[in-house]
Amino acid sequence: MLDAADPLAEYRERFVESDGLVAYLDGNSLGRPLVASVERLGTFAREEWGGRLIRGWDEGWMHLPTTLGDELGRVALAAAPGQTAIADSTTVVLYKLLRAATDARPGRTEIVIDRDNFPTDRYLVEGVARERGLTVRWVDTPHDGGVTPDLVAEAVGPDTAVALFSSVAYRSAWLADIPAITEVIHDAGALVIWDLCHSAGVVPTPLDEWGVDLAVGCGYKYLNGGPGAPAFLYVRSELQSELTQPIQGWMGSSAPFEMGQGYEAAAGIRGFLSGTPSIVAMQPMRDMIALIDEVGIEAVRAKSVALTEFAIELVDEVIPDATLASPREATRRGGHITIDHPRFAQIMPHLWGSGVIPDFRRPDGIRLGLSPLSTSFAEIEAGVRAIAAELG
Ligand SMILES: *Cc1c(COP(=O)(O)O)cnc(C)c1O
After folding, report:
1. 369 phi and psi, to 5 degrees?
2. What would you give as a GO molecular function for this chain, any one (predicted)?
3. What domains, with CATH codes, occur in the chain?
Protein backbone atom coordinates (compact mmCIF):
# COMPACT_ATOMS: atom_id res chain seq x y z
CA MET A 1 0.00 0.00 0.00
CA LEU A 2 2.58 2.55 1.14
CA ASP A 3 5.06 1.11 -1.35
CA ALA A 4 2.56 1.63 -4.19
CA ALA A 5 2.33 5.32 -3.31
CA ASP A 6 6.11 5.73 -2.82
CA PRO A 7 7.67 7.74 -5.68
CA LEU A 8 11.08 6.22 -4.86
CA ALA A 9 9.93 2.58 -4.63
CA GLU A 10 11.46 1.53 -7.94
CA TYR A 11 15.00 2.44 -6.88
CA ARG A 12 15.07 -0.65 -4.68
CA GLU A 13 15.46 -2.75 -7.82
CA ARG A 14 18.84 -1.15 -8.47
CA PHE A 15 20.36 -3.04 -5.53
CA VAL A 16 21.76 -6.58 -5.62
CA GLU A 17 19.28 -9.20 -4.47
CA SER A 18 20.22 -11.33 -1.49
CA ASP A 19 19.06 -14.96 -1.20
CA GLY A 20 16.80 -15.73 1.72
CA LEU A 21 16.58 -12.11 2.81
CA VAL A 22 13.30 -11.17 4.48
CA ALA A 23 14.15 -7.72 5.84
CA TYR A 24 17.47 -5.87 5.76
CA LEU A 25 17.26 -3.37 8.57
CA ASP A 26 20.93 -2.55 8.90
CA GLY A 27 21.66 -0.36 5.88
CA ASN A 28 23.00 2.24 8.31
CA SER A 29 25.83 -0.10 9.32
CA LEU A 30 26.59 -1.54 5.91
CA GLY A 31 24.73 -0.30 2.84
CA ARG A 32 23.70 -2.86 0.20
CA PRO A 33 25.64 -3.02 -3.07
CA LEU A 34 24.18 -1.47 -6.21
CA VAL A 35 24.03 -3.67 -9.31
CA ALA A 36 25.89 -0.86 -11.07
CA SER A 37 28.73 -1.21 -8.54
CA VAL A 38 29.13 -4.92 -9.18
CA GLU A 39 29.51 -4.12 -12.86
CA ARG A 40 31.78 -1.17 -12.23
CA LEU A 41 34.11 -3.17 -10.00
CA GLY A 42 34.49 -5.83 -12.72
CA THR A 43 35.12 -3.25 -15.42
CA PHE A 44 37.50 -1.35 -13.18
CA ALA A 45 39.57 -4.47 -12.47
CA ARG A 46 39.72 -5.46 -16.13
CA GLU A 47 40.07 -2.16 -17.93
CA GLU A 48 41.51 0.41 -15.53
CA TRP A 49 43.61 -1.61 -13.11
CA GLY A 50 44.35 -4.47 -15.52
CA GLY A 51 44.46 -2.37 -18.67
CA ARG A 52 46.06 0.89 -17.65
CA LEU A 53 48.16 -0.49 -14.78
CA ILE A 54 50.40 2.14 -13.16
CA ARG A 55 49.42 4.69 -15.81
CA GLY A 56 46.03 4.89 -14.04
CA TRP A 57 47.46 7.22 -11.40
CA ASP A 58 48.28 9.83 -14.05
CA GLU A 59 45.01 9.23 -15.81
CA GLY A 60 42.71 10.14 -12.93
CA TRP A 61 43.23 8.02 -9.81
CA MET A 62 45.49 10.65 -8.31
CA HIS A 63 42.64 13.16 -8.31
CA LEU A 64 39.80 10.82 -7.34
CA PRO A 65 39.97 11.65 -3.58
CA THR A 66 39.24 15.29 -4.35
CA THR A 67 37.03 14.98 -7.46
CA LEU A 68 34.79 12.41 -5.74
CA GLY A 69 34.99 14.47 -2.56
CA ASP A 70 33.72 17.52 -4.44
CA GLU A 71 30.93 15.41 -5.91
CA LEU A 72 29.91 14.13 -2.48
CA GLY A 73 30.09 17.69 -1.18
CA ARG A 74 27.80 18.95 -3.93
CA VAL A 75 25.28 16.10 -3.76
CA ALA A 76 24.95 15.47 -0.01
CA LEU A 77 26.66 18.24 1.99
CA ALA A 78 25.90 21.41 0.00
CA ALA A 79 29.64 22.09 0.23
CA ALA A 80 31.44 24.21 -2.34
CA PRO A 81 34.33 22.46 -4.14
CA GLY A 82 37.80 22.20 -2.61
CA GLN A 83 36.69 21.38 0.92
CA THR A 84 35.82 17.66 0.87
CA ALA A 85 38.15 14.70 0.25
CA ILE A 86 37.73 10.92 0.38
CA ALA A 87 40.48 9.31 2.46
CA ASP A 88 41.56 6.76 5.06
CA SER A 89 38.95 5.50 7.54
CA THR A 90 36.66 7.59 9.73
CA THR A 91 38.89 6.78 12.70
CA VAL A 92 42.01 8.05 10.94
CA VAL A 93 40.51 11.22 9.43
CA LEU A 94 38.93 12.04 12.77
CA TYR A 95 42.30 11.64 14.50
CA LYS A 96 43.88 14.00 11.97
CA LEU A 97 41.21 16.65 12.42
CA LEU A 98 41.14 16.36 16.22
CA ARG A 99 44.89 16.90 16.32
CA ALA A 100 44.74 19.74 13.81
CA ALA A 101 41.93 21.46 15.73
CA THR A 102 43.50 21.16 19.20
CA ASP A 103 46.84 22.43 17.86
CA ALA A 104 45.03 25.41 16.31
CA ARG A 105 43.75 26.53 19.75
CA PRO A 106 46.95 26.65 21.85
CA GLY A 107 46.48 27.46 25.52
CA ARG A 108 42.99 25.97 25.60
CA THR A 109 42.90 22.84 27.74
CA GLU A 110 39.68 20.93 27.03
CA ILE A 111 38.10 18.72 24.38
CA VAL A 112 34.31 18.40 24.68
CA ILE A 113 32.42 15.27 23.59
CA ASP A 114 29.20 13.50 24.62
CA ARG A 115 29.40 10.31 26.65
CA ASP A 116 27.13 8.36 24.31
CA ASN A 117 29.10 9.14 21.17
CA PHE A 118 30.39 6.24 19.07
CA PRO A 119 33.31 4.37 20.69
CA THR A 120 35.92 5.38 18.10
CA ASP A 121 35.08 9.06 18.63
CA ARG A 122 35.40 8.76 22.43
CA TYR A 123 38.56 6.68 22.31
CA LEU A 124 40.23 9.10 19.90
CA VAL A 125 39.36 12.07 22.09
CA GLU A 126 40.83 10.28 25.12
CA GLY A 127 43.98 9.47 23.14
CA VAL A 128 44.48 12.97 21.72
CA ALA A 129 43.86 14.48 25.17
CA ARG A 130 46.59 12.22 26.58
CA GLU A 131 49.01 13.08 23.75
CA ARG A 132 48.50 16.81 24.11
CA GLY A 133 48.07 17.04 27.89
CA LEU A 134 44.42 18.12 27.63
CA THR A 135 41.30 17.23 29.62
CA VAL A 136 38.14 15.61 28.28
CA ARG A 137 34.89 17.29 29.27
CA TRP A 138 31.96 14.90 28.94
CA VAL A 139 28.39 15.90 28.07
CA ASP A 140 25.72 13.52 29.40
CA THR A 141 22.69 13.10 27.17
CA PRO A 142 19.29 11.40 27.55
CA HIS A 143 19.05 7.74 26.46
CA ASP A 144 16.47 8.53 23.77
CA GLY A 145 17.99 11.89 22.82
CA GLY A 146 21.31 13.60 22.31
CA VAL A 147 23.20 16.88 22.39
CA THR A 148 21.24 20.15 22.49
CA PRO A 149 22.41 23.77 22.32
CA ASP A 150 21.70 24.13 26.07
CA LEU A 151 23.70 21.05 27.07
CA VAL A 152 26.59 22.15 24.89
CA ALA A 153 26.44 25.72 26.24
CA GLU A 154 26.96 24.34 29.76
CA ALA A 155 30.05 22.42 28.66
CA VAL A 156 31.97 24.84 26.44
CA GLY A 157 33.83 27.95 27.51
CA PRO A 158 37.14 29.79 27.33
CA ASP A 159 39.05 26.54 27.97
CA THR A 160 37.47 24.61 25.09
CA ALA A 161 39.78 23.92 22.17
CA VAL A 162 37.44 21.72 20.14
CA ALA A 163 34.08 19.97 20.51
CA LEU A 164 33.20 16.75 18.69
CA PHE A 165 29.62 15.60 18.24
CA SER A 166 27.71 13.29 15.89
CA SER A 167 25.07 14.80 13.62
CA VAL A 168 22.92 11.72 14.19
CA ALA A 169 23.56 9.67 17.35
CA TYR A 170 24.43 6.11 16.38
CA ARG A 171 22.14 4.55 18.96
CA SER A 172 19.21 6.91 19.57
CA ALA A 173 19.21 8.51 16.09
CA TRP A 174 18.95 11.96 17.74
CA LEU A 175 19.48 14.56 15.03
CA ALA A 176 21.45 17.42 16.53
CA ASP A 177 20.62 21.05 15.76
CA ILE A 178 23.92 21.47 13.93
CA PRO A 179 23.71 25.21 13.13
CA ALA A 180 22.62 26.22 16.65
CA ILE A 181 25.23 24.04 18.38
CA THR A 182 27.94 25.21 15.99
CA GLU A 183 27.09 28.79 16.93
CA VAL A 184 27.31 28.03 20.65
CA ILE A 185 30.77 26.51 20.16
CA HIS A 186 31.94 29.41 18.01
CA ASP A 187 30.73 31.89 20.64
CA ALA A 188 33.11 30.15 23.05
CA GLY A 189 35.95 30.66 20.56
CA ALA A 190 36.37 26.92 19.95
CA LEU A 191 36.32 24.78 16.81
CA VAL A 192 33.71 22.11 16.10
CA ILE A 193 34.00 18.74 14.37
CA TRP A 194 30.77 17.07 13.27
CA ASP A 195 30.82 13.30 12.73
CA LEU A 196 28.39 12.72 9.86
CA CYS A 197 28.66 8.90 9.77
CA HIS A 198 24.94 8.38 10.34
CA SER A 199 23.70 11.32 8.28
CA ALA A 200 25.84 11.43 5.13
CA GLY A 201 23.62 10.35 2.26
CA VAL A 202 20.37 10.34 4.23
CA VAL A 203 19.98 13.67 6.09
CA PRO A 204 20.85 16.89 4.22
CA THR A 205 23.58 18.81 6.05
CA PRO A 206 24.43 22.08 4.28
CA LEU A 207 27.84 22.51 5.91
CA ASP A 208 28.87 25.80 4.28
CA GLU A 209 25.58 27.49 5.14
CA TRP A 210 25.71 26.21 8.74
CA GLY A 211 29.24 27.52 9.28
CA VAL A 212 30.63 24.10 10.19
CA ASP A 213 34.42 24.07 10.66
CA LEU A 214 35.29 20.42 10.21
CA ALA A 215 33.44 17.20 9.49
CA VAL A 216 34.07 13.53 8.84
CA GLY A 217 31.85 10.69 7.69
CA CYS A 218 31.64 7.11 6.65
CA GLY A 219 31.73 5.64 3.13
CA TYR A 220 30.13 2.24 3.81
CA LYS A 221 26.92 3.23 5.62
CA TYR A 222 24.41 5.31 3.61
CA LEU A 223 27.03 5.83 0.90
CA ASN A 224 27.15 2.09 0.08
CA GLY A 225 30.89 1.91 -0.60
CA GLY A 226 31.20 -1.65 0.75
CA PRO A 227 32.91 -3.02 3.86
CA GLY A 228 35.88 -0.85 4.80
CA ALA A 229 35.24 1.77 2.09
CA PRO A 230 37.15 4.99 2.77
CA ALA A 231 35.78 7.86 4.79
CA PHE A 232 35.54 11.55 3.91
CA LEU A 233 36.66 14.72 5.58
CA TYR A 234 35.50 18.30 5.18
CA VAL A 235 37.65 21.29 6.10
CA ARG A 236 36.09 24.71 5.68
CA SER A 237 38.17 26.63 3.13
CA GLU A 238 39.05 29.53 5.46
CA LEU A 239 40.61 27.07 7.92
CA GLN A 240 42.72 25.07 5.48
CA SER A 241 45.85 27.21 5.67
CA GLU A 242 45.53 27.59 9.46
CA LEU A 243 45.29 23.87 10.29
CA THR A 244 48.11 21.30 10.21
CA GLN A 245 47.30 17.61 10.31
CA PRO A 246 49.76 15.20 11.93
CA ILE A 247 50.01 12.26 9.49
CA GLN A 248 52.52 13.73 7.06
CA GLY A 249 52.44 11.23 4.21
CA TRP A 250 53.71 11.66 0.70
CA MET A 251 50.20 11.83 -0.82
CA GLY A 252 49.46 14.97 1.16
CA SER A 253 52.72 16.64 0.21
CA SER A 254 52.97 19.45 -2.29
CA ALA A 255 54.87 17.34 -4.86
CA PRO A 256 54.40 13.60 -4.25
CA PHE A 257 56.36 12.40 -7.27
CA GLU A 258 59.42 14.57 -6.64
CA MET A 259 60.07 12.44 -3.57
CA GLY A 260 62.11 15.29 -2.14
CA GLN A 261 63.58 15.93 1.30
CA GLY A 262 61.42 17.56 3.93
CA TYR A 263 57.64 17.48 4.06
CA GLU A 264 55.72 20.42 2.73
CA ALA A 265 51.93 20.10 2.88
CA ALA A 266 50.00 20.49 -0.38
CA ALA A 267 47.86 23.61 -0.50
CA GLY A 268 44.14 23.24 0.15
CA ILE A 269 42.25 20.07 0.97
CA ARG A 270 44.98 17.84 -0.53
CA GLY A 271 47.18 18.70 2.43
CA PHE A 272 44.78 16.67 4.58
CA LEU A 273 45.55 13.43 2.69
CA SER A 274 48.26 11.09 3.92
CA GLY A 275 48.95 7.83 2.07
CA THR A 276 47.88 6.07 -1.14
CA PRO A 277 44.08 6.27 -1.40
CA SER A 278 41.87 3.20 -1.86
CA ILE A 279 40.82 3.68 -5.48
CA VAL A 280 39.11 0.27 -5.69
CA ALA A 281 36.87 0.96 -2.69
CA MET A 282 35.88 4.36 -4.09
CA GLN A 283 34.27 2.74 -7.14
CA PRO A 284 31.00 1.72 -5.41
CA MET A 285 30.78 5.10 -3.69
CA ARG A 286 30.73 6.72 -7.12
CA ASP A 287 27.54 4.84 -8.01
CA MET A 288 25.73 5.63 -4.76
CA ILE A 289 26.68 9.31 -4.88
CA ALA A 290 25.40 9.41 -8.48
CA LEU A 291 22.15 7.74 -7.41
CA ILE A 292 21.61 10.22 -4.56
CA ASP A 293 22.23 12.98 -7.10
CA GLU A 294 19.63 11.48 -9.44
CA VAL A 295 17.00 11.20 -6.68
CA GLY A 296 17.91 14.38 -4.76
CA ILE A 297 18.95 14.38 -1.09
CA GLU A 298 15.73 16.15 -0.03
CA ALA A 299 13.62 13.37 -1.59
CA VAL A 300 15.82 10.77 0.11
CA ARG A 301 15.22 12.50 3.45
CA ALA A 302 11.45 12.67 2.84
CA LYS A 303 11.31 8.92 2.30
CA SER A 304 13.58 8.33 5.28
CA VAL A 305 11.16 10.23 7.53
CA ALA A 306 8.20 8.29 6.13
CA LEU A 307 10.01 4.98 6.78
CA THR A 308 10.92 5.77 10.39
CA GLU A 309 7.37 7.12 11.06
CA PHE A 310 5.91 3.91 9.71
CA ALA A 311 8.30 1.75 11.75
CA ILE A 312 7.44 3.61 14.97
CA GLU A 313 3.69 3.28 14.40
CA LEU A 314 4.06 -0.41 13.71
CA VAL A 315 6.26 -1.06 16.76
CA ASP A 316 3.74 0.77 18.97
CA GLU A 317 1.03 -1.47 17.58
CA VAL A 318 2.63 -4.91 17.45
CA ILE A 319 5.38 -4.76 20.14
CA PRO A 320 3.62 -2.59 22.74
CA ASP A 321 5.96 -3.64 25.57
CA ALA A 322 9.05 -2.39 23.72
CA THR A 323 10.26 1.14 24.49
CA LEU A 324 11.19 3.58 21.76
CA ALA A 325 14.71 4.84 22.49
CA SER A 326 14.65 7.38 19.64
CA PRO A 327 12.93 10.76 19.23
CA ARG A 328 9.25 10.64 18.28
CA GLU A 329 9.58 14.03 16.65
CA ALA A 330 10.63 13.47 13.04
CA THR A 331 12.61 16.71 12.76
CA ARG A 332 14.92 15.52 15.55
CA ARG A 333 15.37 11.98 14.17
CA GLY A 334 17.89 10.57 11.68
CA GLY A 335 17.44 7.56 9.41
CA HIS A 336 17.08 4.78 11.97
CA ILE A 337 15.22 3.99 15.19
CA THR A 338 16.19 1.98 18.26
CA ILE A 339 13.72 0.11 20.43
CA ASP A 340 14.53 -1.46 23.79
CA HIS A 341 13.20 -4.75 25.15
CA PRO A 342 14.83 -7.02 27.76
CA ARG A 343 14.58 -10.09 25.52
CA PHE A 344 16.11 -8.66 22.33
CA ALA A 345 19.57 -10.15 22.98
CA GLN A 346 17.99 -13.58 23.22
CA ILE A 347 16.05 -13.44 19.94
CA MET A 348 18.77 -11.89 17.76
CA PRO A 349 20.54 -15.07 16.57
CA HIS A 350 17.31 -16.62 15.34
CA LEU A 351 16.24 -13.40 13.61
CA TRP A 352 19.52 -13.19 11.68
CA GLY A 353 19.27 -16.88 10.86
CA SER A 354 15.83 -16.38 9.39
CA GLY A 355 16.82 -13.45 7.16
CA VAL A 356 15.54 -10.65 9.38
CA ILE A 357 18.56 -8.43 9.94
CA PRO A 358 18.40 -5.54 12.39
CA ASP A 359 21.32 -4.69 14.66
CA PHE A 360 21.66 -5.33 18.39
CA ARG A 361 22.87 -2.45 20.53
CA ARG A 362 23.70 -2.88 24.22
CA PRO A 363 22.21 -3.20 26.71
CA ASP A 364 18.90 -4.27 25.19
CA GLY A 365 18.22 -2.32 22.00
CA ILE A 366 17.33 -3.42 18.51
CA ARG A 367 18.28 -0.81 15.95
CA LEU A 368 16.30 -0.64 12.74
CA GLY A 369 18.33 1.11 10.03
CA LEU A 370 16.16 2.09 7.10
CA SER A 371 18.26 3.05 4.11
CA PRO A 372 15.71 4.95 2.02
CA LEU A 373 16.59 3.81 -1.49
CA SER A 374 16.99 0.11 -0.66
CA THR A 375 14.29 -0.39 1.99
CA SER A 376 10.56 -0.88 1.34
CA PHE A 377 7.64 -0.37 3.69
CA ALA A 378 6.69 -4.04 3.17
CA GLU A 379 10.16 -5.06 4.31
CA ILE A 380 9.80 -3.04 7.52
CA GLU A 381 6.41 -4.60 8.13
CA ALA A 382 7.81 -8.12 7.66
CA GLY A 383 10.78 -7.36 9.90
CA VAL A 384 8.84 -5.77 12.76
CA ARG A 385 6.19 -8.51 12.68
CA ALA A 386 8.95 -11.15 12.76
CA ILE A 387 10.45 -9.50 15.86
CA ALA A 388 7.00 -9.48 17.48
CA ALA A 389 6.51 -13.15 16.61
CA GLU A 390 9.89 -14.12 18.10
CA LEU A 391 8.88 -12.44 21.36
CA GLY A 392 5.73 -14.59 21.23
C1 LIG B 1 30.45 3.90 11.86
C2 LIG B 1 31.05 4.98 12.67
C3 LIG B 1 32.43 5.12 12.75
C4 LIG B 1 33.31 4.11 12.08
O5 LIG B 1 34.65 4.41 12.03
P6 LIG B 1 35.61 3.44 11.20
O7 LIG B 1 36.92 4.09 11.22
O8 LIG B 1 35.01 3.26 9.84
O9 LIG B 1 35.62 2.11 11.88
C10 LIG B 1 32.93 6.21 13.48
N11 LIG B 1 32.10 7.10 14.07
C12 LIG B 1 30.75 6.97 14.02
C13 LIG B 1 29.86 7.96 14.68
C14 LIG B 1 30.19 5.90 13.32
O15 LIG B 1 28.86 5.77 13.26
Report:
1. -100, 125
2. kynureninase activity
3. 9-33+296-391 (3.90.1150.10), 42-292 (3.40.640.10)
